[in-house]
């Protein structure tokens, strides 16, 4: 009997662990470093919401490329053309380098994203605009770099050589594989499925859109979210699926035990 009880507890742990994994929502943001709409979303929606408990419910991926395009000359040298000019291209290069070079650090434990990187992105975008000069953008890099996380000189070096270019080419290919050309900046995608209504809604109320994707039981932060009933019903279906899995496992173990 103790053997079967042990098996049951193992299976129960598996189901609960799977439930915890399902609770984490995949969020992908396609953006540009100087886009005013992307700046507004990052500074006023994405960043503040992911500072607390909800950060544990998200796998976040930031793709800094937007509506940029790239060309190669006869020497295979790559150049970028960005929607808000060459300073935005520089900002995209900085953001691409920051994503790959910034150390995760201890404050990212148990999170589905690099919080140090998100801190840098938010700080940089808060200190630049679509009218910023190269000097102002470089000053933002210095202001937003943390000695124990990443040095400003290392980011600038990356952005000014082939490493930065290769980073941005990589994010350009990711963007192109999603949508070429990208129609809206920012574009926010939940769980790998693009829905224009959800993307637009996230720019206005990221909390509501995120909470609508988190399955039951939802965290207390979602109590105040304006979640549409149809979206809540989708989450309930996912929750029902998880509960059904548990009942199936329980029934199988019980049947096996009774048959012996």
TrEMBL record:
Keywords annotated in UniProt: Glycoprotein, Secreted, Signal
Signal peptide feature range: 1-17
GO cellular component, one term: extracellular region
InterPro entries linked: Interferon-induced_GILT
Subcellular localization, as worded in the UniProt entry: Secreted
Principal localisation: secreted
Pfam families to which the protein is assigned, alphabetical: GILT (PF03227)
GO molecular function: oxidoreductase activity, acting on a sulfur group of donors, disulfide as acceptor
Similarity remark: Belongs to the GILT family.
Name the record gives this protein: Gamma-interferon-inducible lysosomal thiol reductase
Organism, as annotated: Psylliodes chrysocephalus
